[in-house]
Amino acid sequence: MCNDKAVLESIPSSERAAEVKALDLVFKDVKLERALGIHWHIESDTFRFCLCLKDQPATRRGILSTVASLYDPLGFVAPFLLMGKRVLQEMCRHGTGWDDPLLSERQPVWERWKNDLANLEKITLPRCYLPPGFGRVVRKELHHFSDASTCGYGQCTYLRQVSEDGSVHCALVMAKSRVAPIKVTTIPRLELAAAVVSVTASNTVKEELSLSDAVEYFWTDSKVVLGYINNEARRFHTFVSNRIQKIHLSSSPQQWRYVSTSDNPADFASRGLSTREILTSSWFKGPLFLWEKEIPPATDVSTEIQIGDPEVKRIQALNTQTQNQLSLSDRLSKFSSWSKTVQAVARLIRRVRHDKSTGHSTVQEREGARCIIIRDLQRQVYPAELKALTEATQLPTQSRLDGASLRTFLYEAAAIVNSRPLTVDNLNDPDSPEPLTPNHLLTMKSTAALPPPGRFIKEDMYARKRWRRVQYLAEQFWSRWRREYICNIATRQRWHTPRRNLKVGDIVMERTEDQPRNEWKLAKVVETVTDKDGLVRKVKIRVGDQKMGKKGQRIGKLSIVDRPVQKLILLLETV
User: Fold this and answer.
1) Which of 72, 363, 368, 440 has the fewest Cβ atoms within 10 angstroms?
2) Do 335 and 345 touch, CB atoms closer than 8 A?
3) pTM > 0.70
4) CATH number belonging to the domain at 128-291, selected among 1.10.3290, 3.30.420, 3.30.1300, 1.10.760
5) Among 457, 377, 428, which Cα is nearest to 558's?
6) 101 forms bridges with which residues in the sheet?
7) 350: closest CA among 366, 338, 336?
8) 62-71, 391-400, 539-548 — most confident range
């Protein structure tokens, strides 16, 4: 489509579109052509608004339909559209239903805006950014204005071009207007949001109009925003910090300038205008100073951030004086496991020795870390004993009793650790001896450790009888050993990872909550039960009696029981 008769006549009729072939080249048949939701008047080469609105009820649904029918992608009438959006936002603020009528106090505002829609037909905008005969352009500038108010915030962009003879022309390129959030927001934050819209519009205009070489200016009437943008030392809260980062990505602080509110056309986009006010304002042409031969120099305004600005993070310096000196063990109490604690101390020792390597700690480093931790604990728990040993004097009587209890507990713990079976070859053979354990090699005896002599509770820790304290500690050690070690003998599987089904001949260990101390209940899988999904969830196991005769032979009979696989731990897979 073209509005120049000479250009159309130069194109052969066979190359013209069907619509152009039937078109009277004096433009008497077709006057308007739709372009981007607005109308292009071909003869005058201007954009116009032609609305054919349906009569909608004054409900939230009807008002939304009416406001949305005004399609203005370039924001030519953004100030006017803001007024309609504000009425719709008021209904949302009061929780009005989709088909509920508009509040009576807002009815005149809505009727006035709705009736003003017809006046949009009086607006005409030249399609070209330059008037005919302007001459060769030697300089292009993009001027972005932003502003905010309690009603809304917005921006407008103007293309300023200078010809080789010094003529100046300005035209509105695009604009945006948005209502302020329902949640109360400070004016500086809204001004900053408008500035972000400005840099976003800058990126769009430069890309769509191929104006990457144009000189850009960003204007705002907020000295607070200018202070934020020019700041290099202060740290802001998240809201401000994120938006300042977006602004710095698309512009430099030197491009931002101050403009008075009276000369800021973005003030119209943030407060709204009627159709008549748009026609009589500087909305389409921009402020007068853009039409001067030279852009006035930047106004010298203070960009210092005021003391007490709520958007600046407060830095508090607290002086504390401690009297209690923390020991190494106190500082290491935050670690969740012994291995992590040893690793941390080993790395600290490496740093003390000025070793900056980042590899894993060696066995020697971890051994040294263990010794340091143990020595620190000894200094806290046994200060009197260490002093006596240092001075070569006799130890206190209480210390000798404690030493005997400690040795007894260590013997009990060693018996638990060393009672794990080493062989399972002859597990279900009635004629075979009991499975070999480290205890057999250490004690050279085949007799199993006796079960605990009774039941022990937490109160035994504070009883006068020290043997009950030792037995309680041994029970706690067995409980943790069974829970933290036995259950992790088999490879740990995630719930969503397929795992191997148990097979006949597998050696397993039965896991029971009431398992006595030092008892390892081993068994062999003799039969599996496969479900429809191909998974084995229940098996039959053959359990051998651990009661032994004088010659180390089993005296009981073998038993076969059903057990779910969750209660079994795979020790040895069948070949």
Assistant:
1) 363
2) no
3) no
4) 3.30.420
5) 428
6) 59
7) 366
8) 62-71
